[in-house]
Every structure is written in structure tokens, then in C-alpha cells.
Design a protein that fits this description.
heterodimer, A: 511 residues, alpha/beta, Rossmann fold, six-stranded mixed sheet, B: two-stranded antiparallel ribbon, 2% strand
């Protein structure tokens, strides 16, 4: 890993109006290295990646590819220069089949096929419409599409964020091997585990400036966190939720789901969601959790089974039916929930105007106070509040939740709300969800990051193949147990047999 | 991200650009002033109080129709049936006023507008027909109905109610009477856009319809109300226009349809939805009206005038979008 850098960017700056997204970023990538790009939300990681791949143009700075200044002012030119991105959001065109999507970017088909096999998606029909491909698989296809053109430098923005564990592993493996062929990868992730396993060096951004470049070695996490946070180094463990006061099951049943069936994905799901609890939902990608949430939110009508709210059976025909019962859906994909060109205030206040009776004049003062209250509660950074699209991802996510805090929804359906946002914001969201539960509200919380279950939830509902396969109390819902359950394996019978029986039983069973 | 005080460092061009993107109305007003200046230079003395009153008088019908476009364009739609709704209202009021008192005639004249708006709203909101197709379709149907209607009243002749003539052409103390209609309407439109729940929903739907659905908004309700509002506004404009032109015809307001779209776009309303304001549209309508006068004064052949008109609209729109978009 010596010699001329493959990519060298210095003094890169980007300004949106009065807001500086990047002030002075630099990044040097050597041949054959996996280089982590790190920073808290809004530090400018995504902006830098977009500049390096021609999606937006910088206001200042010099970018050298193999020591030469190359024109990368459009994505096509950046590709020619050997810089190929895989963005945080899927970039396949939904209304074209996969094959046409490949043609669009002149991606060779055979290498692509090989890569998707390599990445663990063997049974994909290239004639499928991109919109019918599950989100996680779409991201893998994006990656395969980038790999197929053999780029010098590949930029992966939160590649593993929406992936279930099994796919994520394959992806990391492929990335690692990519670097062994002398090509480089720029890797953006919030997961230290991945970075430790994968990366050689890391560049840390803070407030749009490069504040440090470090070699990845054991124990470097502390140093990186220090760099990311600047002066305010305080390692905060999550406020462990305490259920001492309320015994399990003391809350009233808020939502009761019985034998719910939706299409071919969700077969038979039953569970209760109680007042004052955060119930985790854990599942591998595509096990019917999307359908479950959509049905509870009133987006799609179930084919069978019943949903009861506060003891009364309901049937939702439109999300508004759920909203009026106080059930609000926070989608994992922020672009689904936000009107990007409108202000923070208008986005938070959106549900207030929804009903016909509220179409009249807005009481600006009262609305302002409610919105301000929600903004403060979630500590949303409002410096770029005129358009939500100028906020960082974490702040956007907060807006989607703030909306329902302001509307005082009694039940939140959060679908992977911490996907692709920084550690600090995650902590804030965990804390908020716990607070809501303490106030007697109920939260159904799907997460693709298993460690979150023990941080936030009271219990974990595990879904596999469209059915509830297990409901784990939080004490035993560690990552190992959840993973086993999520793959449909039966729970080890520690509880029933007793603490000592476990180790004794094992050797006997072996022969 | 953070705010930096870049005022002292940024070059003048960039600072101007930022200023204009923060106040998109400023470049429009500058353009309007330039056009008036050119007009004054080409034909010294033309810009006087009478000319201003006249310009405003002709800009108002255009601005009203452009109001329909602004509102529908906020949701990512468009209303091409406004010309027909206006023409039908105008034609019917002129023929009905022969036998009926003026208020009754005006009421009858607005019925087709309500029906067209209702059909548009149901088509776009419930059956999800693209607004372009839907409103073109209802527009054709409306014109056909008007032709049938014309045969039934052909013997009775036409009479424009005096009130409409007073409103359309009258000038009181240097101010066109049409302002009595226009100022409240403009105030209402701006109020709806900025200060009502309905207005918020228009912007939000144009920006991200799926998000509004999740927030509990029923799309068809908003769209139905919107297109009915737009059509009725077009009908009212038709009544006013009848008073201004005073000669009923089957294509009275039709030539104003495309300029009404142009006025909204020049005024900064995004045709893709989610962005825009009626203030810009009003200035856009003024710009187009002054431009028309300017081209008339140049004494060019009709063909050349139209080519120039179209080219200038495209140029202004493209330049304006470059100025206010910060990319």
C-alpha cells in the first residue's frame, strides 16, 4: 500500500445558500486499501461522496485521480475516471426491469450475474421489475452493478445499513476481496465492528472538515469517537430501561393482532401490544414484517385475521383510519414520509391539516408552539429548516418522528428508524422511545440491528416465514438468541431445564 | 452543517445569486422594470397613467387564469380546461342576460364551470387520470356542449350585463374597477396558500403524495376541492373577461390558456409541484402583458411577433430557473 494515491482530494468545500455542508475536506486513498469515511450526522460524508462521484459539484477544492486532475463534474465522467458509487438510497429505476437498468449504465451482464451469485442472491430473474425487488436485494444489486464495471475506487455509502445479517456478511467479504486486487474502496458506515474487520485506515470528518486520518488497529474506536465528537467526549451508555416499577403485562392491551394474514408474505401473526411498552420486532429481510407494519398502518388491507384497538375490532381502509385511532407509522425510508422541499415546521404540522375539518385557517401561534415543542423534544438541528432536504439524514429521521410526537399519537409503528444514522442520534431516539413508553404510549419497533433490542425493547417478537416463531423476554434477547430465532431455530431450553442442566445435557446428546 | 458568515469572502456574482434565490421576486420585478423602460425608450411618452391602468386591466384576466394554474401546479397538476370554463361562463352570461336579471344570468353561467371542475376532480382524484389528459378532455366536451347550446339560443341574441362592462372596462379615479374583484381574489389565494390547512396540503401533495397519505390525507378530497375551486375561479374570470371584450364568441378565453401556464411558470411555480406562490404569478402576468404591448409596438408581422413571444417566454423561464435554483 505504497506509492501514488489512487484518489487524492484536498480542500473540498460545498455550500448550500448560507449553509456550508463541507468546509475543508480532504481524503487520500491508496491503492488496495479499504478506507473508512467517518463522522457524525451532518459531518459531510454524503456530500463528499456525492462530489467525488460527480452527483454534485464542489465550490472549491482539488481532486486528483492517479495523480492527475480529472474532470468529474458529472456521474458519467466520474465513472470514466474510475470512481463508482453505491449510494445510501437504492438507485435502480423502479419501472424498468433489472436488465434494462444494467443497459442504462452500460454494465456488462455476465460479470453482474457472477457478482450477484457471489453476493448470495442466486435466484434473481433479470426480467423482474426493479420495484418488485425487496429493498435489501436492490442494494445488493446496486453493489453488483458497481463491481461489474471494475472501478478503481468504489464508494459505499452505508452499504450494510439496510441489510439483514446474512447478506451483510457476504457483502463485507466481497468488499474485502476487492481490495486484494489492488483496487480501493471508500467505506462509510456507522458500525465499528464492520470498520474494524474491514478497513485499513479511516478519515474522520467533523462539521465539514477533515479532522484526522487514523490507521485502524485494536482500540482505535475511542480515538475515532473522540475525533468525531471533538471536545465533547462523553461515552454515554444507553439509559437502561427499567421495568421494575411496572411488572410485565401490567399495561392495558392497546393493539391486539390475531391470525393476521397479508398476501403471500404474512401468514399467521398474533401478538399484543400493550400500553407503556416498546415491543421489538425482529426478522430477516422479507419475512413479512413490511406487510405487518403496512397492515397496522392502514396502508394495505389484510386478507385475513383481525386487528383490535383498545378491545374493539377495526378495519383500516386508509392510513387516516389508523391515524384517527392514534396509530402512526414512521417508515424506515425517510423519503417516504417527508415533503422534502417544505420546511421543518410544515412537515411536522402536516397531520394537523389532513382532515377536511382542518382545511381552514391555521392558528399560527398555537401550531408554532406545538411544533417548537416537538423540535425541542427531539433536539432537531433547525439551522437549515427552510427545506427538509437540506437537513442531515439523522435530523430528517427526527422530523418524521417529531410529527407524531406533535400529533400526540398513542401508538408508534417505527420501522427501522435508526437505519443509517449516527450513534449520537440513535441514542437520542432510543431515549425518546423509552420516554414515550414511560408516558404510557406504546411502540412497535422493527429493527435490523439486533443489539438495539436489548437497548430499547421490553420484549422481542420474532417473525420468520410470515409467522411469529418466538416472543423473547428482553433479558435473554441478546444478538445470538435473536439470530437463532430469526432463522427459525427453536429456542434453547435453558429456562425450562434450569441453569445447570444446559452444559450437562450437551455431551450426552452428542454421541 | 453550520452557518458561516461568507458575506465578506464570496464574490459579488455569488452573493447576488444567493440574494436572488432567497428573494425570487426581485429578479422578476427587475425584468418587469426593464421591459417598461425599453417600452418607454421605443415609444417615448407611452408610459403614463392611462397606459398603466390599461395594462393592469388586461393583466387581471390573465392573472386570474394563471391563479388556477398556480393552485393546480402546486400539486403537480395543471388545468387546461380553464379556457373552456371561462368561455362557457362568458357566452352563457351574455345570452342568458337577455331574458334574466344579471345576477341570475351570472349564477347560471357558473354552472358549467362547477360541472367541469367536478369532473376534473373526480377524474384526477379518484380515477387517477393524468391532469393534462383529464382537463383537455373535459375542455373538449365543454366546447362541444357550448356549440350545441349556441344553436338553441341563436335567435335570442346577446347582451352583456352593464355591471360586467363596468367591472371589466371601467376606470375609477385612475384605477381599473376590475381591481375590486382582483384584489380580494388575490388576497384569498395568497391566504389559502400561506395560512390554511388546504394550502399546506397542496404543497405537500405536490412534493410527496405518499407522505401525505401516511399522514392521513385523503388525496381525492383535496384534488376534488382544488379542481372545483380552479374551475369556478376560471368561470368568474370568464364573466369579467366578457365585460372587458364585450363580444361573445366560442373561443373567447382560449388564447389565454397557454399564457396563463407561462405566467405561473415565469412566476416561479414549479410544474412538478411543491413550489411556488401567487405573488410571483401576478408579476409573471404583468410581464407577459407588457411584453405583448412591446411586441405590438414593434410593428412586426404577426408571425414574427408570435415567434418572438414564444422565444422570450422560454428564455426568461430558463434564465429565471437558473438564477433562483441553487445547485
Amino acid at each position: 500500500m505504497t506509492g501514488q494515491p489512487l484518489l487524492e482530494a484536498t480542500g473540498v468545500a460545498k455550500r448550500y445558500g448560507a449553509v456550508a455542508a463541507l468546509k475543508n475536506a480532504s481524503l487520500t486513498v491508496l491503492p488496495g486499501e479499504v478506507h473508512a469515511l467517518m463522522g457524525a450526522n451532518g459531518a459531510g460524508k454524503s456530500t463528499l461522496v456525492k462530489i467525488l462521484t460527480g452527483a454534485i459539484s464542489s465550490n472549491a477544492g482539488r481532486i486528483l485521480v492517479r495523480g492527475q486532475e480529472r474532470d468529474i463534474r458529472s456521474p458519467a465522467k466520474a465513472r470514466l475516471a474510475g470512481l463508482v458509487p453505491v449510494y445510501q438510497e437504492p438507485s435502480l429505476i423502479p419501472d424498468l426491469d433489472v436488465l434494462s437498468n444494467l443497459r442504462l449504465t452500460q454494465t456488462p451482464v455476465e460479470p453482474f450475474r457472477e457478482w450477484i451469485r457471489e453476493l448470495g442472491v442466486p435466484d434473481l430473474d433479470l426480467r423482474d421489475m426493479a420495484r418488485d425487488v425487496p429493498l435489501a436485494i436492490q442494494r445488493v444489486l446496486d453493489l453488483a452493478r458497481a463491481l461489474a464495471v471494475e472501478p478503481d475506487v468504489m464508494l459505499l455509502d452505508e452499504m450494510t445499513a439496510a441489510l439483514p445479517a446474512n447478506l451483510a456478511e457476504r457483502v463485507l467479504d466481497v468488499v474485502k476481496r476487492q481490495s486484494q486486487t489492488g483496487r480501493s474502496v471508500i467505506f462509510i458506515s456507522h458500525r465499528f465492528v464492520e470498520i474494524a474487520a474491514l478497513c485499513d485506515r479511516a478519515t474522520v470528518l467533523r462539521d465539514g472538515e477533515t479532522v484526522g486520518v487514523v490507521d485502524i488497529e485494536p482500540g482505535i474506536e475511542e480515538r475515532i469517537v473522540e475525533l468525531m465528537l471533538g471536545a465533547k467526549v462523553e461515552k454515554k451508555r444507553v439509559a437502561r430501561k427499567q421495568t421494575e416499577g411496572e411488572a410485565e403485562g401490567s399495561g392495558k392491551t392497546r393493539v391486539a393482532v390475531r391470525n393476521l394474514k397479508v398476501g403471500t408474505k404474512l401468514h399467521d401473526v398474533s401478538f399484543d401490544l400493550k400500553d407503556g411498552e416498546v415491543a421489538g420486532v425482529v426478522a430477516l429481510e422479507g419475512q413479512g414484517q413490511d406487510e405487518l407494519f403496512a397492515a397496522l398502518a392502514g396502508s394495505i388491507a389484510p386478507d385475513g385475521g383481525t386487528i383490535e384497538v383498545d378491545g374493539k375490532q377495526v378495519s383500516f381502509h386508509h392510513p387516516v383510519d389508523a391515524v384517527e385511532m392514534g396509530i402512526a407509522y414512521v417508515p424506515g425510508d425517510r423519503t417516504e414520509a417527508l415533503a422534502m422541499q417544505q420546511s421543518v415546521r410544515e412537515n411536522i404540522a402536516l397531520p394537523f391539516s389532513a382532515a377536511f375539518r382542518n382545511w381552514g385557517p391555521i392558528r399560527m401561534a398555537r401550531e408554532g408552539a406545538t411544533v417548537q415543542n416537538a423540535i425541542e423534544r427531539l433536539q432537531i438541528d433547525t439551522r437549515a429548516q427552510r427545506e427538509v432536504q437540506r437537513l442531515s439524514g439523522g435530523n430528517q429521521q427526527k422530523v418524521t418522528i417529531a410529527r407524531w410526537i406533535a400529533a400526540d399519537a398513542r401508538t408508534l409503528l417505527c420501522f427501522d428508524p435508526t437505519r443509517g444514522i449516527d450513534v449520537g442520534t440513535k441514542q437520542e431516539i432510543y431515549k425518546l422511545l423509552r420516554q414515550l413508553a414511560e408516558q404510557g404510549k406504546s411502540v412497535l419497533f422493527y429493527t435490523s440491528e439486533l443489539e438495539e433490542v436489548q437497548l430499547v425493547c421490553d420484549r422481542a417478537i420474532v417473525i420468520f416465514g410470515g409467522k411469529v416463531v418466538d416472543i423473547l423476554p428482553v433479558e435473554i434477547a441478546d444478538e445470538a438468541a435473536l439470530t437463532r430465532a430469526a432463522y427459525g431455530l427453536a429456542r434453547e431450553s435453558h429456562d425450562e431445564v434450569g441453569v445447570l442442566a444446559g452444559p450437562h445435557a450437551a455431551p450426552e446428546a452428542r454421541p | 452543517m453550520s452557518i458561516t458568515s461568507t458575506a465578506e469572502r464570496a464574490p459579488l456574482g455569488q452573493r447576488m445569486k444567493r440574494f436572488m434565490s432567497d428573494y425570487p421576486l426581485v429578479p422578476l420585478l427587475i425584468l418587469l422594470a426593464i421591459l417598461i423602460l425599453v417600452l418607454q425608450m421605443l415609444s417615448p411618452g407611452i408610459v403614463n397613467q392611462r397606459w398603466i391602468a390599461n395594462t393592469v386591466k388586461f393583466a387581471i384576466p390573465l392573472a386570474l387564469l394563471a391563479g388556477c394554474q398556480t393552485m393546480t401546479m402546486l400539486t403537480g397538476g395543471i388545468d387546461l380546461s380553464v379556457g373552456t370554463a371561462a368561455t362557457m361562463a362568458a357566452f352563457i352570461v351574455a345570452t342568458q342576460a337577455v331574458d334574466n336579471p344579471a345576477p341570475v344570468a351570472m349564477m347560471i353561467a357558473l354552472i358549467p364551470a362547477v360541472l367541469i371542475g367536478f369532473a376534473n376532480g373526480i377524474g384526477v382524484g379518484v380515477f387517477r387520470v393524468h391532469p393534462l389528459i383529464m382537463t383537455l378532455g373535459t375542455s373538449l366536451i365543454g366546447v362541444g356542449c357550448l356549440q350545441v347550446y349556441q344553436r338553441t339560443v341563436i335567435a335570442s341574441g346577446a347582451k352583456v350585463p352593464d355591471f360586467l362592462i363596468w367591472l371589466g372596462t371601467g376606470v375609477t379615479g385612475g384605477f381599473p374597477n376590475a381591481l375590486l374583484l382582483f384584489i380580494p381574489v388575490a388576497a384569498l389565494l395568497l391566504f389559502i396558500q400561506k395560512r390554511t390547512g388546504f394550502g399546506r396540503l397542496l404543497y405537500a401533495i405536490g412534493d410527496n403524495e405518499r407522505a401525505t397519505r401516511l399522514a392521513g390525507v385523503k388525496y381525492w378530497q383535496v384534488i376534488l376541492a382544488l379542481y372545483m375551486f380552479s374551475s369556478v375561479l376560471a368561470g368568474i374570470m370568464g364573466l369579467l373577461y366578457m365585460g372587458l371584450i364585450r363580444a361573445p364568441s366560442l373561443s373567447l378565453a382560449e388564447p389565454l390558456v397557454l399564457p396563463s401556464v407561462a405566467a405561473a411558470v415565469i412566476g416561479g411555480t414549479s410544474i412538478f409541484g411543491g413550489r411556488g406562490s401567487y405573488t410571483g404569478t401576478i408579476v409573471g402576468a404583468l410581464i407577459l402583458t407588457v411584453l405583448t404591448t412591446l411586441l405590438t409596438i414593434l410593428q412586426m408581422p404577426e408571425g414574427a411577433r408570435r415567434i418572438l413571444f414564444g422565444a422570450i417566454i422560454l428564455l426568461v423561464t430558463a434564465a429565471y430557473l437558473r438564477i433562483i435554483e441553487d445547485r
